[in-house]
Design brief:
mainly alpha; MetI-like fold; 0% strand
């Protein structure tokens, strides 16, 4: 067996375990919390009072205007200087959540605003209040449009978690770095890590395509029933 193949097979369990233990949980938690934060931010920007709108805009402006790696460094290495100490995983979780929240808020805000005003009027005409109209009429329609961009955000997040290695989170990429430090084979190990990320992204892209088809059918049924 070629040396490079043997090395990849020997290191594969270590890299996969790091992915299962850290990369996947960090991705799922960050995306879920970020999506909630994004929804709150989007609704605030669309319907909130002016002071909260300004705060939401400032948050989105700062996060979108600064690199994710810098944000992670500020949280993990910078906050201890003012007495806020965080372990690596919680620091990464906060950083990725804030980042996903800002970008997803723009997606949610755009798709929510794209729902025709007539849908609001129709909801109010049958006795719904604002909350009921939002949850039963507006958000379901907006969700169908938001699936592709939010799915892309999720896939990007899977790859972006590799940045957590810079703040000592022992996820997939840092595990590859540790193996490189003992084997002195950076090309082989980094290619292997890239292939694992590629496999995960490919699976998610396939799921995204199926989800889009399902939502398209749902949208077609709604149109047919109108």
């Amino acid at each position: 067996m070629p040396h490079w193949l043997q090395l990849m097979m020997d290191s594969l369990p270590t890299l996969l375990w790091a992915g299962v233990k850290f990369t996947i949980p960090l991705t799922l938690l960050s995306f879920t919390l970020g999506l909630i934060l994004g929804l709150v931010t989007a609704v605030t920007r669309l319907f909130g009072p002016t002071p909260l709108v300004l705060i939401a805009r400032f948050y989105v402006w700062v996060i979108r205007g600064t690199p994710l790696l810098v944000q992670l460094f500020v949280i993990f290495y910078g906050l201890p200087s003012i007495g806020i100490l965080l372990d690596a995983f919680p620091a990464a979780l906060i950083g990725f959540t804030l980042n996903v929240g800002a970008y997803s808020s723009e997606i949610i805000r755009a798709v929510t605003a794209s729902v025709p005003k007539g849908q609001w009027e129709a909801a109010y005409s049958i006795g719904m209040n604002w909350r009921q109209a939002m949850t039963r009429t507006i958000l379901p329609q907006a969700a169908r449009v938001a699936v592709p961009p939010l799915s892309n955000t999720f896939i990007s997040l899977v790859k972006d978690t590799s940045l957590a290695a810079a703040i000592t989170v022992p996820e997939l990429f840092q595990s590859a770095q540790r193996v490189v430090a003992t084997t002195y084979e950076p090309l082989i190990l980094y290619i292997e890590a890239a292939l694992i990320y590629l496999a995960m992204s490919s699976v998610l892209s396939s799921l995204q395509a199926r989800l889009e088809v399902r939502f398209a059918r749902y949208g077609g049924m709604l149109e047919a029933n109108r």
